[in-house]
């Protein structure tokens, strides 16, 4: 099994966390998203993933993109701690939280969007950062409200779920852009507990080989 990703990609970071929690051994191959205009746009990687995004998982004959689909595939095919609740309603709530991040917050602040804002639309660094912070704040206000109702030690009670795998990378990105995190005390508390866990430490961007 091979995971193609990039050390600072929050989508690849989600998958690394899930793999670390479940104890899945996987070869990791770096796809540099900036060097030489972005290796994800080259013909070799484009043949693997026509969307020209990371991550991509290759497992035998299966080539799978999209972090949420990859994590659910790993959940259904590997042992280790379950990352989705057994109760259908709770499972749906975890999936909805993941999609709040992966479908609503992350896409409008993805690298290719930020590059378009500056390259094609001519926004300054400050305007680009304002864009990022605006949409992050919109999303985090909703996450904070959800977590006030669902959180225990982690996003949903005291058991790790895919929601936690999605939350920490998005907070990591927010810190990179110097987002004011003061308005989100529940989110901050959950994230601090998660980041102290061995699986989250191992999956952290700064601990990846291509970060150096």
Structure characterization notes:
The chain has a four-stranded mixed beta sheet, with helices on one face. The mean pLDDT is 96. The protein is globular. It contains nine helices and four strands. The chain has 212 residues and is an alpha+beta fold. The longest helix has 26 residues, at 125-150. Helix 1 runs antiparallel to helix 7, helix 4 (88-105) packs antiparallel against helix 6 and helix 4 packs parallel to helix 7.
Give keywords.
212 residues; 54% helix; 4-stranded mixed β-sheet; alpha+beta
Radius of gyration: 17 Å
Average of per-residue pLDDT values: 96
Please identify the structural class as seen in this structure: alpha+beta
Distance between the termini: 23 Å
User: Helical element count?
Assistant: 9
- Strands of the widest sheet, in order across it, are 2-1-3-4
Overall spatial form: globular
Low-pLDDT regions: none
The amount of helix comes to 40-55%
How is the biggest beta sheet arranged? 4 strands, mixed
Strand content: 5-15%
Beta strands, count: 4
TL;DR of this structure?
This protein is α+β, with helices and mostly antiparallel strands. Helix content is about 55%, strand content about 10%.
Give the topology.
Blueprint: E1 2-5, H1 10-22, E2 27-30, H2 43-48, E3 56-59, E4 62-65, H3 67-77, H4 88-105, H5 111-119, H6 125-150, H7 162-176, H8 185-195, H9 198-203
Parallel strand pairs: 1-2
Antiparallel strand pairs: 1-3, 3-4
């Amino acid at each position: 099994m091979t995971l193609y990703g990039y050390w600072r990609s929050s989508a690849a970071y989600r998958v690394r966390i899930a793999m670390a929690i479940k104890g899945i051994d996987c070869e990791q191959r770096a796809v540099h998203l900036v060097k030489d205009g972005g290796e994800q746009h080259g013909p070799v990687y484009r043949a693997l993933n026509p969307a020209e995004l990371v991550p991509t998982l290759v497992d035998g004959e299966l080539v799978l993109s999209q972090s949420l689909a990859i994590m659910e595939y790993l959940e259904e095919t590997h042992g280790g701690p379950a990352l989705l609740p057994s109760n259908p309603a709770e499972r749906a709530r975890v999936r909805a939280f993941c999609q709040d991040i992966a479908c609503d917050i992350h896409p409008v602040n993805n690298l290719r969007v930020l590059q378009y804002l500056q390259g094609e639309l001519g926004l300054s660094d400050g305007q680009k950062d304002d864009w990022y912070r605006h949409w992050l704040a919109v999303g985090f206000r909703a996450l904070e409200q959800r977590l006030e109702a669902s959180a225990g030690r982690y996003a949903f009670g005291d058991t790790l779920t895919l929601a936690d795998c999605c939350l920490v990378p998005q907070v990591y990105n927010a810190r990179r852009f110097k987002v004011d995190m003061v308005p989100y005390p529940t989110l901050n508390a959950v994230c601090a507990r998660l980041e102290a866990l061995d699986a989250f430490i191992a999956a952290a961007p700064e601990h990846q080989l291509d970060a150096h």
